[in-house]
Structures are given as structure tokens and as C-alpha cells.
Amino acid sequence: MAVDLQELTKQALEEIARADSLDQLERVRLRYLARHGGLISGAGARLRELPADQRAAYGRDFNAASGAVHEAAERRREELSSAELERQAGEEWVDMSHPGSPLSRGHAHPVAQLVREIEDIFSYLGYQSVSGPELEDDLHNFQLLNMPPEHPARDAHDTFYLAAPAAGWLYRTHTSPVQMRAMLTSKPPLRIIVPGKVARRDNPDPTHNPVFHQVEGLCVDSGVTVGDLKGTLEYALRALFGRDRRVRLRASFFPYTEPSLEADVACGVCQGSGCRSCLNKGWVEILGSGMVHPQVLRNGGIDPDRFSGFAFGMGPDRIAVLRYGMADVRDLYENDLRLLERF
Ligand SMILES: [Zn+2]
Predict the structure, then answer these.
(1) Distance from the CA of 264 to the center of ligand 1, in angstroms?
(2) How far is the CA of 281 from the centre of ligand 1 (A)?
């Protein structure tokens, strides 16, 4: 029996030394040492068949044989592994000077770019950018802005009302409620702009989308006049559209301003001759404004005998359409990268 083990060990060590790959080494290891059916492991099972006085010696020989084969296999595995690493290092070298593959860079959505631009323009004039809640109550969205229940001006604000359990709340129809919140929490002088999303139940068409953006502006101080309003709007519109674009101001009506002015810009697609984009008007309305109504100042806790102010609201979506000569405002919301990547 002992001779058997010696002979098996000798064979195993020779085969291990000859193994020239990790796969081959593993096959050799299993042939001799597999728990079931390994040649040396199987020799161990004969222990039980031996007379009691021979078992201790056979056990020692068996342990020595399997230990020697196991150790030889481990040593050979290390040799083969480092040889394999060296081979890889030699063959699979990395060219550190090879140019990397380019990463495609994203950029802000054209409307977000315009909002930032508007913020920059007004920041230069001393305005601070603030935000307010998108879900509002009737008081801030309408009543404090001189639109009590049943006021006809509410018809133009076709409103999304929230259902129970949020009944009584609405999706703001303009950013003007943030004016009220600012007046109620700060003292003049006030110079703020309020970029944000608003919603009205408009049918989508080339110039309307139910959800759109507004940038509201408010200036309250002592001695603010219509001249300040006109100067501010002219400065901002020239900064946005360039000195060449024709701009007109015309009288309008809003319940929360007196007097009220609207600013139109010549259509960027047809330059004023009329097209589908401007619904054949040649002009696109981009801005409503006016001197803050004395009652609205009072509603905001500001004394209209000591202070006056102006407010304006503009649509960055519409400005993007004009600026880039887009035919349809809805293209801004389709998330078609082929289009958005152009801006
Ligand atoms: Zn046009």
C-alpha cells in the first residue's frame, strides 16, 4: 500500500510540473485530489480495510502524500499565474498617448437658458430672483390682485383647480401671486423677478401650451413712475432681442395695474408681414405690465401714498420661439434632442 502512495505521489508531482496552463493544472489536481474519485483521495479510503496495527502508519503516509501534492499544485498555480500576468502585460499594453473617445456634453434647455439670461439682465439692474409656490390659493392668485370671485378678468385665466382632498387649491395661472407674497413679507424698496411655471386650460396651438413659463418682475419704491417702467422694459427688450428688433408698447388692461401696458415684438419668423407662427398678426405679445394698482399695494401692506411701483410679466417660451424663429411653441416641450441640440 505504501508503495502505491509513493508511486502516485511521484506521478502527480511530474504531471503538476508539466502542466503549462492553469486549466491543465486544475485537471491534474482534480485527478489526484478530487474529494470523490481522486486517485490519492481514493487511496485514503483503504484505511478502513487495513488491520488496526497498520492504520497509523498508512494514515501518516497518506497525509504526507496528499499534502505534498496539494502544496506542489499551489506552487505551480502561483508560477503559472504570474507568467500569465507577465504575458498580458507584454501583449495588452496601454498607449497613454492615444486620444480618448469624446464625451457628448449636454446643455440647458433653451427656455432655461433664456430664464438665466433674463435673470442676468435684471440682476444688473439690481433685481433679486425669487421663487414661490406653484400650487396657490384663490386669495393670492386672484383676490389680492383685484380679482374677487365673479370678476370677468378671471375668464382669461382658465384655471386648473385641484380636486378633493386639495379642493380650494389651484395651479397658479400666473407668477403674480409671488408679488403679493413678497410685498406681504418685505418692506420697500423691492426689486424682484420671479421665474416659474404656470398653467392655464388653453388648447394647444402654435402659440399656446397649457403649461408654460413666466418671469414676473416687481419694483416698489418711493417715486417710481411710468417713465421708470418704460425705461426698464426698453432696456430689457433690447438686451434680449437686439437693437434691430422692432418693439411696440400699447395701452392695455389688467385688474392689478393702472395704467397697463403691453409690449409686442415683431415676429421673428416673418419680420412683421404675418405668418402661421404669429397667427398673421406680424407682432407677438411678449410682455404685460403696468403701474401696480394702489389697492394691490394696500393688499400687500404697502401705503400707496408713500410708495409706488411697476410690475411686468413675460413669457420665456414665447421669447425662445421669437428669438430662434421657431414655428411652434410646442416644439419646446417635445424633448426632441435633434431640435433642442440646435440651441
Ligand atoms: Zn410671423
Answers:
(1) 12
(2) 7
> Could you give the CA distance from residue 144 to residue 311 in angstroms, rounded to a whole number?
15
Burial of 292 (0-12, 13-18, 19+ CB in 10 A): buried
Structure confidence by residue, pLDDT tens digits, 239-291: 988 888 788 889 999 999 999 999 988 877 788 888 887 788 888 888 999 99
Rounded to the nearest angstrom, the distance between the alpha carbon of 284 and the centre of ligand 1 is 8
Q: What is the pLDDT of residue 189?
A: 95
Ligand 1 center from residue 276 Cα (angstroms): 6
pLDDT in tens, 141-165: 999 999 988 888 787 778 899 888 8
The overall pTM is greater than 0.85: no
327 CA to centre of ligand 1 in angstroms? 9
Cell matching residue 229 = 417702467
Domain 110-340 homologous superfamily, CATH: Bira Bifunctional Protein; Domain 2 (3.30.930.10)
Distance of CA 107 from the midpoint of ligand 1 (Å): 28
Distance from residue 320's CA to the centre of ligand 1 (Å): 14
- Angstrom CA distances, 35 to 19, 44, 75, 252, 278, stand at 21, 10, 20, 95, 85
Phi, psi of 296 (to 5 degrees): -70, -40
Q: Where are the domains of the chain?
A: 2-90, 110-340
**170/162 Cα distance (integer angstroms):** 5
Rounded to whole angstroms, how far apart are CA atoms 146 and 155? 14
141: nearest Cα among 216, 41, 219 = 216
Distance 114 CA to ligand 1 centre (A): 21
Q: How far is the CA of 313 from the centre of ligand 1 (A)?
A: 22
Half-sphere exposure of 240 (CA within 13 A, CB side): 33
Question: Which cell numbers hold the place of 99?
Answer: 486620444
Residue 3 is predicted with a pLDDT of 52
Going by pLDDT thresholds of 50, 70 and 90, the confidence category of residue 135 is very high
Q: Residue 213's pLDDT is what? A: 93
